[in-house]
Request: fold
Amino acid sequence: MKHTLLAGAALCALAGFVATPAQAQGLELNLRGQFIGYAIYNNQDEPAGTSLRGLDLRKETEVHFDGKTTLDNGLSVGVHIEINVDRDESATGSVIEESNMFISGGWGRFVVGEEDGVAYLLQVAAPSADWNIDGLRQYTNSFDLGLMAGANTGLAVDRLDYDHAISGALNKVTYMTPVFNGFQAGVSYVPSLSEGDQSGLAPITANKNAGFDDGVEVAARFQRKFDAVELTIGGGWSDYDREVTAAGQTDRQGYNIGADVNWGPFGLGAALFEDDNGISADGDSTAFIIGADYTMDAYKFGATYYERTDEAAAGTHTTAGDLEYSRWTAGVQYQYGPGMRMNGNLTYLEAETGVAGDAEYDGYQFALGTTIDF
Reply:
């Protein structure tokens, strides 16, 4: 109920801001995007009867459409659309990644539609060797994490990152305050975590009681420079109601905290993210990272240590035992043009499966690639 009241108040406030007619030139869409491409060599433990390819090419490509105009009353109105153009994503129908509109002014910013929530938008990331590999949200990975989980397949994940994005880019309404002396806060309301509720023609009861509904995210971030030292700290919390609970199940909650300190060319930071997965006991997923970097002209050197633990829980993941991943990454980045970066990095990954006497699997990955913003 409290979540529904919060959503109603946000929508009423949004309606009040746009109630007064204002004339302005219509929106014109601008095209931009990003290409991420890598050549990767991987060598990891292979269970019996498995043969993995060692050398491969990986890429992630997005095209963004942005439009914005300022009305005579001072309001800024715009739209944002992100499209995935890689063949594998298009084949599964996941073409549109985000689609939303926003209204902003001196009072802050409202965003309505498909966009990440404030728990992710205001999240503080640690320095990284290559943000595509060991950043807040991972875009490139060649490890077969399911095979490394061994018999503990119920806990296998497909990415090793720490983004607080439980709701992803599902429909939501978000409000973010202006930045006051380095401080900014925000809140998001998410009607449902079910994809089926997102269609414009779906009945409003389509997935009621089938999952998590009435989600709220709150977050805050402080970023300030003190002489030669720049400090960034922040945190976020999310809560999603489970309409029907079974034994061992509860509402789903998550939180993140992070800090980053930059002193001249040096950077040091750490972050923690935890998601209880809607499980009442021993079902948490926890990710922790600490990283450092050093910038020298067009070069940036970085290193991180990342650790993820998925607890076992009967009736949810698996009863076989906890699964732990430990990853070390070091690399160098070279900016060879505006919006153009070349990255080379080496990653070592170790997995403890929690089964068969805590069986261990490990492997390493060498990646050489480029990111081009356009």
Observations:
- Residues 17-24 have pLDDT under 50 and may be disordered.
